[in-house]
Amino acid sequence: MIKDKNIYDLVIIGAGFAGLYSLYKAKLANLNVITIERASNVGGTWYWNRYPGARCDVESMQYSYQFSSELQEEWEWTEKYATQPEILKYANHVADRFNLRKNINFNTEIKSAKFITDKNYWLLTNHKKELIKTRFCIMATGCLSTLNKPNFKNIESFKGEIYHTGSWPHHKVNLKNKIVGIIGTGSSAIQCIPEIIKDVKQLYVFQRTPHYTVPARNAPLKYLKGKNISNMREPIGYDNDLFVEEVKYNYSSFRLKAQNSVAAMALPINNQSALEVSEDRRQHVFEDRWNKGGVPFIAAFEDLNFNREANETAAKFVRNKIKSLVKDSNVAKLLTPNYPIGCKRLAVDSNYYETYNRSNISLIDLKTDPIKEFSKDGISTSKKCFELDVVILATGFDAMTGTLFNIDIEGKDNIKLKDKWSNGPKNYLGLASSGFPNLFTVSGPGSPSVLTNMIVSIEQHVNWIFDCIKYMQNNDKSFIEASLNAEDDWFKHNQEVSIDHVRSSCSSWYIGANIKGKAKNFMPYVGGYSKYVEKCNEVSKNDYEGFILK
Ligand code: NA7
Fold it and tell me: Is 514 in the pocket of ligand 1 (CB under 6 A)?
């Protein structure tokens, strides 16, 4: 790498899990590196999403780094699904344990990034208009970090408090005895509602589309703690009877199972089709998965994601559960989705449906009674005015591209990323986009990212990027750019694999449908994590085939 003390080797944008691991790798490689983070501390999405009930829907023994066996060994998760505060504590622990903080500029936002072709560096500008030069840039900016704040008429006139689940305040929000309205019924609302109902006087849930959710069956993790460890079992993941020590004893084989899977998670696998078993057997398998809890429900049979008839058997099972759990049949009907299960991300909850049996909750169906406007006192729908003390927007994110577009990124020949991607994000392997040399995205569009266990995907991307930088150093290269052909082929492949997949069967943030005017393309790579990794490895083995190196 050409040394010029005014030019960083690498600038990493973001100090969430992708940014932290990138920084760790950069320091290991002795690069002159700085990380820039708009928040006042590390954690990324877990720094911002502090709403009541926020927790990960991937089990904590899997949603954790594996690059350091010491870290893996010493960290003790307390619950099967970690809460947001515990995950944030973990991110802070990682930052301290690996001495990462001194290379992070907090409270700093990058506003623009311009590639200076003749000098072969990126010129970044922060919110204070300071300039930063760097050879390489890693966008560790997260997939769900730009809020979707729908433009409700007169929202600014509301005199009560308004919060968004995705940027919840750091102080405790007092909802005791308040009349609260929550807009949205995605994963965030599904986690939040059963928590806040305990405090509020009355909760109005404004629902546009019902969401499928399965019970988490969260529980404290079990520790043997000093007892004699003999006959350690082989862990498969989501097994409620396992002791943490058993997982740790076999951690590498547990992690390998995740590596070889579709979603980068060790899941109990069933290779049967839902259609080749008897009705009794099918119900038994669904019931068993429902009782054990979590996302393995959608892997109950191997064809739920591809065969609509098979998918319908699972959807019907959940619809029947809603009917049996929600006492008021009209409410149950409104909570029942009519599209394939697993299209929108399957939510994982604790007593979501049961919460609708409480006396202080009302469900408003925005399909038949849409929001007309806000007033100083609350929300008016076409049929009624709701006086509210607090409004919670659980309306999600401008996912995957929103945060990249918030930075004015300009590549070679004055191409802006926003213009290049105006018909949807196009890049090679989700790692780099033609026209934007020496700039990598971690778990961006075009990679499995949000369809997988994110920490595993992040580590794979970051490892690939640093292997690539090392290869460039060893081969005297200072310029890498995805070729147009390679990215066209990858984009085509991406769209092809998504056509028959259940994820394409409804409107969701995966295709940008939640944001007005956003191009509608399937953004994450749905072809499966292990296949994707194989492709990445093949590319690097073949001297970065599909990239132009100079
Ligand atoms: P989601 O899953 O995008 O959910 C947002 C919810 O907000 C969803 O129910 C939307 O209804 C609703 N929404 C969005 N805009 C509006 C307007 N204008 N009016 C009424 N309702 C609206 O976001 P989450 O934060 O819950 O979860 C995001 C991810 O975080 C999740 O997938 C996990 O990966 C973790 P819609 O379904 O669009 O009709």
Answer: yes
Distance 21 CA to ligand 1 centre (A): 29
Nearest ligand 1 atom, CA 209? 39
Q: What is the pTM of this model?
A: 0.97
Q: What is the CATH number of domain 155-211+344-393?
A: 3.50.50.60
pLDDT value for 65: 98
**Given this model, what pLDDT does residue 240 score?**
80
* Residues facing residue 410 across a β-bridge: 114, 416
Contact 298, 341 (CB under 8 A): yes
- Give residue 238's pLDDT: 84
Rounded to the nearest integer, the mean pLDDT of the chain is 96
Sheet of 202-207, strands arranged across: 161-164, 390-393, 179-183, 202-207, 361-365
Q: What is the pLDDT of residue 3?
A: 58
Ranges of CATH 3.50.50.60 domains, the chain:
7-42+100-146+398-458+479-530, 155-211+344-393
For residue 329, the surrounding DSSP H or E stretch is: helix 329-334
List, for the chain, all residue ranges whose pLDDT scores fall below the cut of 50.
Answer: 2
Mutation pick for ligand 1 pocket among 155, 187, 367 (CB with most ligand atoms within 8 Å): 187
The response to whether residue 264 sits with its C-beta less than 6 Å from ligand 1 reads no
Tokens of 455: 């920490």
Binding site membership of 51 for ligand 1 (Cβ less than 6 Å): no
Q: Pick one of 3.50.50.60, 3.40.50.2300, 1.10.530.10, 3.40.190.10 as the CATH number of 7-42+100-146+398-458+479-530.
A: 3.50.50.60
**Coil, strand or helix at 274:** coil
Instruction: Compute the distance from residue 517 Cα to the ligand 1 centre, in Å.
Output: 16
Distance 366 CA to ligand 1 centre (A): 13
Q: Scan for tokens 């033609």, then name that residue.
A: 434
Residue with the smallest CA separation from ligand 1 atom 36 is 209
Yes or no: say if 479 and 550 are a contact pair by the CB < 8 Å rule.
yes
160 Cβ closer than 6 Å to some ligand 1 atom:
no
CA of 208 to the centre of ligand 1 (A): 9
Q: Quick one: pLDDT at residue 230?
A: 72
CA of 187, closest atom in ligand 1: 26
Ligand 1 atom 21 nearest Cα: 184
Question: What's CA 8's distance to the chain center, in Å?
Answer: 29
